[in-house]
Amino acid sequence: MKCRSLTQPSKISTLSNSSSVKKTQKSTFDLLMILLYTAIFSITTATISQARDVTLQWDPSTDSSVTGYKIEYNADSATVPFTGTGAAQGASPYDAKKVTTA
Q1: Cβ-Cβ contacts under 8 Å for 91 (sequence gap 6 or more)
Q2: Could you read off the pLDDT of 64-93 as tens digits, one per residue?
Q3: Cβ partners under 8 Å of residue 86, min gap 6
Q4: CA gap 45, 101 in Å, rounded
Q5: What is the pTM of this model?
Q6: Per-position DSSP letters for the chain, written without gaps between them
Q7: Do 91 and 82 meet the contact criterion of CB atoms below 8 Å apart?
Q8: How many CB atoms are closer than 10 A to CB 73?
Q9: Cα distances (Å, whole numbers) of residue 96 to 56, 67, 70, 74, 78
Q10: Nearest to residue 102, comparing CAs of 58, 66, 41, 68?
Q11: pLDDT tens-digit map of 25-50
Q12: Could you give the CA distance from residue 23 to residue 34 in angstroms, rounded to a whole number?
């Protein structure tokens, strides 16, 4: 008597391969999203950090003895004294008078 064994294609193997492909696709998608967000962040940061114009605005003082405002600045430095030059409004300190925008 001969014995013959029959094999059936393994569904587990097929499912395993399909799952592996989906994981690879998800990993690729996640990596692309990270790269996209990094690029957007870099462009936004570079644009903001290279700003050359600044607008200042403040609320007027309620103290009646205040006769005006002075704006002090120092280009490319945060050290005192603020003796900046080259602004369109003038050198530091800039006399803003009673105006609350510069």
Answers
A1: 83, 84, 85
A2: 898 998 888 887 777 777 888 877 777 888
A3: 75
A4: 26
A5: 0.44
A6: ----------HHHHHHHHHHHHHHHHHHHHHHHHHHHHHHHHHHHHHHHT------B-PPPS-TT---EEE---TT--PSS------TT-SSSEEEET-SB-
A7: no
A8: 20
A9: 11, 10, 6, 16, 21
A10: 58
A11: 777 888 888 888 787 777 666 555 55
A12: 16
The tokens describing 87, both together, are 């602004």
Query: How many angstroms from the chain centroid is the CA of residue 26?
Result: 26
Taking alpha carbons only, the member of 75, 81, 24, 77 closest to residue 54 is 75
Q: Which tokens is 84 given?
A: 């900046």
Q: Which tokens in the block code for residue 75?
A: 């280009």
Q: Which two tokens stand for residue 88?
A: 């369109």
